[in-house]
Every structure is written in structure tokens, then in C-alpha cells.
Design goal:
single chain, two-stranded antiparallel ribbon, 9 helices
């Protein structure tokens, strides 16, 4: 078991099961633009590197001239539907309760306004000392400069800091920054892709964390 002082959580696919709402907004965008509709499973492979990158990949390289309009359509739809089906993964509330006295923050590549609305809507925003996302910091995962900014605010030892996430960007963020990486294998990223990144720890269920981190 690893002793840690600061727990850095990803959001989509780690704390919240949000893939369906994201994919449906992307499908709506493609239909509205008259573009070929991608399967939701394909769209979910675009999650993790920010909204702009997701929309860019969804419309495809041949339709980049539609990017501004696509962003408008996606944002208008997602703002209305981001909590339609999104919820906490089973065991997340209990896991956060177990670590009630531990320093915890959320670091996501999702737009900060969306991240806060989801965390507040699901009643767990107050479990975290800080929420960082696109629009609140000049850097995004896996850029190590983001960790430098975090550790200025939370001067914890790198060896006692852990990044917990379901994405490749999360694991690379931890490795680039010299902190512990912990991968959730049942999120939005295929587990084989995550395991190929050689995370320091892996877990299958949120409550499994208590056997890994103290």
C-alpha cells in the first residue's frame, strides 16, 4: 500500500460515467451538420484531450472548415444535456467518504464550467479542495507544467502525490511529472491501451483504491 498526501482525480470516466451524454451531443452535432454519424463507441475514444479536440476528431479532417459551427452546436446541446445520463460510478461516493480527510483535487481537460456543473449537480464538488480544467489553467494534461502549478498550491512531495484516472493523458501526466500513476480500468479508455502505458497501480472498482492508497 502506498501512502499519499495529495490525490489528483480525473473526472470523465474516473469519477463520473459521462460518456453517453458526451457522445449524444457529438452525434447531435454531426446530424445537424449533415455529416456521417459515428458510433458512440468511436466518439468515446476521442474523450480526454479537451472539447475542441473531441469535436475536431468527430467531424474529421475533411470538414475542419465547419469547426466553429460544430463547436457552437455541440456546446449548445451539451450545456442542456450534460446531466441527462451522467452519474457517479458505483462506489465513488463511498470511496470519497473513506478519504474524507485526505487532500483531494480534480484535474480535468474538460472545460472548467462544465466540470463544476457536473460535480455540483452530482453533489460531490465540496469533496475537493480545488477543481482545475480547461479555462482555469494555461496547461492541460499531460503537460508537466500543470503539475508544477499544482504543487505550488499544494506543496506535497512528488512521491506522495498520485494521479488517478482512466485516460492515457492521466498516466502520461503522472509520469511526466514524477508522481504516482493509478489507472482506473473500467472507464472510457480501453484497458489494453491503459496497461500499455505501464501505470504504477491499477484498479477495477472505486472502492478498490482503499487497498492501494493510504
Amino acid at each position: 500500500m502506498k501512502n499519499v498526501d495529495l490525490m489528483i482525480f480525473d473526472l470523465d470516466g474516473t469519477l463520473v460515467d459521462s460518456g453517453g451524454d458526451i457522445a449524444r451531443s457529438a452525434v447531435h452535432t454531426l446530424k445537424t451538420l449533415g455529416l456521417p454519424v459515428l458510433p458512440e463507441e468511436k466518439i468515446l475514444t476521442f474523450v480526454g484531450n479537451g472539447l475542441g479536440r473531441l469535436v475536431e476528431r468527430a467531424i474529421g479532417p475533411a470538414h475542419q472548415y465547419l469547426m466553429d459551427r460544430a463547436m457552437e452546436i455541440f456546446e449548445a446541446h451539451y450545456e442542456q444535456h450534460m446531466l441527462d445520463g451522467t452519474g457517479l460510478y458505483p462506489g465513488v461516493a463511498q470511496m470519497l467518504g473513506h478519504y474524507a480527510t485526505k487532500r483531494k483535487i480534480v484535474v480535468t481537460n474538460k472545460r472548467i464550467t462544465y466540470a463544476k456543473r457536473i460535480l455540483e449537480g452530482l453533489g460531490i464538488a465540496d469533496r475537493f479542495e480545488r477543481i482545475l480544467g480547461e479555462g482555469s489553467t494555461p496547461y492541460m494534461k499531460p503537460d508537466a507544467r500543470l503539475m508544477e502549478a499544482i504543487l505550488e498550491i499544494f506543496p506535497e512531495q512528488r512521491g506522495r502525490t498520485v494521479v488517478i484516472g482512466d485516460g492515457i493523458a492521466d498516466i502520461r501526466f503522472a509520469k511526466n511529472s514524477g508522481v504516482v500513476s493509478c489507472a482506473y480500468l473500467n472507464g472510457l479508455t480501453p484497458r489494453d491501451a491503459l496497461l500499455a502505458e505501464a501505470p504504477d497501480m491499477v484498479y477495477e472498482h472505486p472502492q478498490n483504491l482503499r487497498t492501494l492508497l493510504a
